[in-house]
Design a protein that fits this description.
Elements lengths: L2 E11 L11 E10 L2 E7 H4 L9 E4 L4 E4 L1 E3 L11 H7 L10 H10 L2 H17 L2 E7 L6 H12 L4 E7 L10 H16 L5 E6 L6 H13 L3 E6 L7 H7 L4 E4 L5 H9 L3 E4 L1 H7 L6 H7 L3 E3 L13 H12 L3 H15 L16 E4 L6 H4 L6 E6 L2 E2 L1
Parallel strand pairs: 1-4, 1-5, 6-7, 7-8, 8-9, 9-10, 10-11, 11-12, 12-13
Antiparallel strand pairs: 1-2, 2-3, 5-14, 14-15, 15-16
Bound molecules: N-(iminomethyl)-L-glutamic acid and fe (iii) ion.
Length: 392
């Protein structure tokens, strides 16, 4: 049996915590990995007792920090082209609007499967290199039955967390008959994508889908066995959060514009508030108020939303730095939200936590503590990544 012992860990974030330390912090710790799972977690001093044949590989962490692999619960990684020109114009004052999605739809439709697959593979390498070991991928840049089906199929080649987002925006060819497009999403398109997908999502926002349309889409997905998640309250206040909670969504994502009722609804539900600070960074919008959500008792995740329009970054360390600097989170809260929080947003029990029986997805930081992820923004601190017990 292949086993790896990581020992001399200066600070271990287990996320098996207590109210005063949700990160479940251990110092001078060690982790034993066997058959892709965590077999044991304890004091480095006790690891010395593990017989040499018990761990065929020993990694000395050099008193540095180890955290769970990042869980990026929100990305849009299958697309063609980019929109650097749109970003450049935005930095000169042009506001972000949902309509830009249609440009990526045109570029994505023009790309072959192999082009999209090759690009996706590069993004996966990019994610792994930055410590992300679990990630979700949405469709939503195809918006025909055939194109959405192939985006879902290609996404399913790299992750089990595939989200059908045919309801991303109404495509140009349906501009005069949006009801017909919603019918298509809820019918033939859903039928084609459901076999490759675990989740259904809808962009409930001005310029995208109305609350009534969103409810229809989520209900159709649920009838096909897909679990709901929602893009809501990104560009302005609205019903997105409340309809997500009412639908029992695992997560409502963005949550930039919330009123007190939204915050209360989130706090009373098990719908995770997923915050995407790369969007506010890249669109010059005000950041969501994570502090308000946490103080109210809501569960918060942070994710990259990596996409060519509103947030073209896959860096979870950057999200942590932004969450701490701009959203009122402590470094510990931000690291927890980028790992265990993401796992909750994906309703996953097997990742986001370093404990016996969980997947051996870990990141060794070139830093003595997790605080450095926010303290040293922009510095590549990922020194080692294990996914399912294998060092990448
Ligand atoms: O999550 N909000 C909707 N969708 C993406 C943006 C997509 C785009 O601009 O291409 C988001 O921000
Ligand atoms: Fe998104």
């Amino acid at each position: 049996m292949t086993a790896t012992l990581i020992t001399n860990i200066g600070e271990l974030t287990t996320n098996v915590g207590t109210p005063s330390d949700p990160c479940g912090t251990m110092t001078d710790a060690a982790v034993l990995i066997e058959s892709g799972r965590i077999a044991w977690v304890g004091a480095a001093a006790d690891a010395a007792a593990i017989p040499a044949e018990g761990a065929s590989r020993v990694v000395d962490a050099g008193a540095r920090a180890v955290i769970p692999g990042f869980v990026d619960s929100h990305t849009h990684l299958v697309f063609g082209g980019d929109r650097a020109d749109e970003f450049e114009a935005r930095m000169s004052g042009t506001p972000y609007a949902a309509g830009g999605i249609r440009r990526t739809v045109a570029a994505t439709r023009a790309a072959s499967d192999d082009e999209l697959r090759a690009r996706l593979a590069r993004f996966v390498d990019e994610l792994h290199g930055q410590g992300t070991t679990t990630f979700e991928v949405k469709t939503g840049y195809g918006l025909t039955v055939a194109d959405e089906e192939r985006l879902a199929r290609l996404a399913a080649e790299v992750t089990r967390e595939v989200t059908f987002l045919g309801a991303h925006v109404v495509p140009a060819e349906f501009a005069d008959d949006r009801d017909a497009y919603v019918d298509l999403v809820c019918g033939e398109m859903l039928d084609a994508c459901a076999p490759h997908s675990r989740w259904i999502d809808v962009f409930c926002e001005r310029g995208a889908f109305t609350p009534d349309e969103a409810r229809r889409v989520l209900a159709a997905g649920a009838a096909r066995g897909l679990l709901p998640r929602v893009h809501g309250n990104q560009l302005g206040p609205g019903e997105g959060v409340r309809l997500a909670v009412a639908a029992g969504a695992a997560s409502v994502d963005h949550c930039t514009y919330l009123d007190d009722d939204d915050v209360a609804a989130l706090a009373e539900s098990d719908t995770v508030a997923t915050l995407l600070p790369g969007v506010e960074f890249s669109t010059r919008q005000p950041y969501p108020d994570a502090r308000r959500l946490l103080d109210a008792g809501a569960t918060v995740a942070i994710a990259s939303d990596c996409n060519p329009g509103s947030s073209f970054t896959s860096s979870m360390p950057l999200m942590i730095a932004l969450a701490v600097r701009e959203m009122g989170m402590t470094p510990a809260e931000a690291v927890y939200s980028a790992t265990a929080g993401g796992a909750k947003a994906l309703r996953r029990e097997d990742v986001g936590v370093i404990a016996p029986g969980k997947r051996a997805d870990l990141v060794l930081l070139d830093a003595p503590t997790r605080v450095h992820l926010a303290y040293r923004p922009g510095v590549p601190l990922v020194a080692g990544v294990w996914k399912d017990g294998v060092r990448l």
